[in-house]
Amino acid sequence: MPAEQVIDELRALRTGDLPTHGGRTLAYVYDSGREGLDDLAARAHALASSANGLDPTAFPSLLRMENEIVAAAAALLGGGPSAVGSVTSGGTESCMLAVHAARAARPDVERPKVVLASTAHAAFHKAAHYFGIEAVTVPVDPASFRADPAAMTAAIDDRTVLVVVSAPSYAHGVIDPVPEVAAQAAARGVRCHVDACIGGWVLPYFRALGEPVPDFDLSVPGVTSLSVDLHKYAYCPKGTSVLLHADASLRRSQFFASAAWPGYTMLNSTMQSTRSGGPLAAAWAVLNHLGDEGYRSLAAQALSAVQALRSGIAGIDGLRIQGEPQSTLLSVTADDDGFDVFTVADEMTERGWYLQPQFGFESSPANLHLTVTAANHGGEAGLLADLASAVAAARRSGPVTLPAELTAAIAGLDPAALTAEQFAGLLAMAGLEGSGTPKRMAEINAMLGVASPVLRERLLVEFLGVLYTAS
Hints:
alpha/beta, 7-stranded mixed sheet, 4-stranded antiparallel sheet, 16 helices, 13 strands
């Protein structure tokens, strides 16, 4: 195909995606709204995309950029002169490396454990799954959704290699009591990781703007590592994140080296071996271009948008915000049983917005997640008007009800013994004909909502297999 035809086809394919700019997709993407920032990042990415971060001695430009990015992150997030870090491909890799480093540093521990607040990101469960670690989840306060320091402490034992808290947690946007948990972990000789993937690059600026942000970073005694994503509120392209350690001795077990083959001695600082220099250079360019004042301005815009949306949502009959979010994330649930929030999500999709459905878990009922960015500043009134309209439409539709036979069929499924035939039958009952997803998802989400978490995982893994099948 000629080059221009290839690009035209790509543009056509992209028309079916959620919008990545304009503040209308309130999950997955982070838009600064700054004109020219994407072009700068793309130009920087192109300049370094063929360079390989596998060997920093071969490409010293990448080494310098990574060290400068890590230094900037450490300065922002309370890292002292001994703080070190690595640039990774995203928050999940940063979190997994923190778990790996803690596990590898304790080879004497058989069947190691990681203690997590139940609101910790699923990336830590992924790390436990990949690395053969037991994830011990501790329920959070049922009203505030914050980690319970006493319960977290009680869960630590001789097999615990890491304790994890969030700043903020993704589902509700609240900040865990980091100082209390970190102090107890330190008293037991256990590492404490702060997942600040979302909040790390915006909370310090909220504090500078006068917001009462609690202590959460590497300056807190007992915090040994922290993750912060640059492709979130540093507004860099996907995917760049930073994993910081309080000192080099804590990072050493993160590294991997192998001379047990006839080729070059493999030496890796992250989970990847070959690493394109493109994302690193793009992040370096954006950080240097925006600078401290630029990020302060963007944080002010995001903060203003969050405050306007919180106030506006409180004024919509039937909606309430869960917990007391202290960052840029909002969890919105129904305050009465006259409508279904999953229907509200569908109605918002029809109005050109994407709000992310979240299933009920522990004391948190089904809700809608909003990730608010600087790009939402100035558009709050339109979002709130459409949200009020969507709630009214959902009330007219009434709550989603599932046929009794479908609910019974779901209840009778054994996740471990689910067959392809059973899954195909559920797809048919749900209106999914082998691949793709319908435009309206309320009934599908209601079906998944009545399934146990284990069954939901199994169903969605099967569905993922259907989606990723070459035609």
